[in-house]
Design a protein that fits this description.
151 residues, mainly alpha, extended
Length: 151
């Protein structure tokens, strides 16, 4: 439950790749880079921005969107570089501010979904319980391993 974001990305990855692998299921490693490009370029419903935009403050330029020849820019003056950097910082501040606002709007919805299944539990000193230990020990059979250790 504590790795919800990771679990969600893995679910999307699995579902997306499942549509494009061949019948033998051996070409999944060739499909992953295409999925990652699509995922990084797609705006997120919460933030309104693509992950690529939030990392690089600009939309991803895909090969089909422009000239594929290498572009060599002439030397940029120091004042132009400073101005570009300031513009970049300003854009980042604006994007992060909007993400923060959108996350605050989404928080009550997420809390309602979580609270539907959450159970209030209280523990006292010396209560007996089980410990979840998913770590795999090398050299042991993992198929029938017990993940819970307890009294």
């Amino acid at each position: 439950m504590s790795n919800g974001l990771t679990e969600r990305v893995h679910r999307v990855l699995h579902d997306s790749i499942a549509h494009y692998i061949d019948s033998s299921g051996t070409n999944w490693d060739l499909v992953v880079p295409f999925f990652l490009v699509a995922y990084r370029a797609t705006p997120h419903s919460t933030t309104g921005y693509s992950p690529f935009f939030l990392m690089h403050v600009g939309e991803m330029v895909l090969p089909n969107e422009g000239n594929l020849k290498a572009k060599v820019s002439p030397s940029i003056q120091e004042s132009e570089q400073i101005q570009r950097l300031e513009n970049l910082k300003s854009s980042l501040r604006k994007a992060y501010k909007e993400v923060r606002i959108n996350n605050q709007k989404m928080h009550p919805k997420n809390k309602v979904y979580y609270d539907k299944k959450a159970k209030k539990r209280t523990f006292e000193v010396n209560d007996r319980g089980f410990l979840y230990d998913p770590a795999r020990k090398p050299g042991r059979c993992h198929k029938f391993r017990r993940f819970w250790q307890g009294p």
